Amino acid sequence: MAPLKLYYYPPCPPYRAVLFAVENLKIEVQKILVDLSKGDQLKPEFLKINPQHCLPTIDDDGFIMWESRAILAYLVNSRAPGSSFYPLDPKKRALVDSRLSLDSSIMHALGNIITGIYAGVAEIPQDKKDKVYTLLEHLNNFIDGKNYIAGDELTIADFAFLSTFSTLKVLGANVAKFKNLVDWYMRCVPVPGFQENEEGAELLIEYISNKTGLKLEPWDQ
User: Fold this and answer.
1) What is the pLDDT of residues 22-48, one digit of tens each?
2) What is the full DSSP assignment across the chain?
3) pTM, whole model, 2 decimals?
């Protein structure tokens, strides 16, 4: 089987989620850099592959798809069906899907903040911060007494939220007040891909700074 083609950009949070699946499933990949800072995603050759010009995008022997959470599920289903990363048991899988949906909501709320930053808004509106914190509080409560995001086993929900959590940290969110999430995060330090995800999150700050000229401050001072 030919290596999986993975179109990526290191700072991109959705790419970093998929990175965890690639590392933990030990998938052979051919990484193809799409430099968002240079507008590579809008070049005709990439638009032909993905008209929505978003990352990550995969090409699995001619099967092309994007949307990181769908990719996570696909990679487990195609490479390790029945894996605890995306369990076959309907109830366990439903819980993973539910947590992926909550992660999507958190990223959407965070995306609204990032959109404002790109527009030059240095001071983040309190209501937008509160939206993120409310969702984080829900997740913090949901994992009380659990080792991981969807129970006691590592799943693709952890892969997705590790990317989100590292992004929240570098953007200045006060994540320290969510004890269960902080404990979970420290528990994930040995997970393959953790360090590369951290480095990508730091690059995101550099990308935003270069694009906007803004120096981001902690949300709660």
Assistant:
1) 999 999 999 999 999 999 999 999 999
2) -PPEEEEE-TT-HHHHHHHHHHHHTT--EEEEE--GGGTGGGSHHHHHH-TT--S-EEEETTEEEE-HHHHHHHHHHHHSTT-TTS-SSHHHHHHHHHHHHHHHHHHHHHHHHHHHHHTT--SPPHHHHHHHHHHHHHHHHHTTT-SBTTBSS--HHHHHHHHHHHHHHHTT--GGG-HHHHHHHHHTTTSTTHHHHHHHHHHHHHHHHHHH------S--
3) 0.96
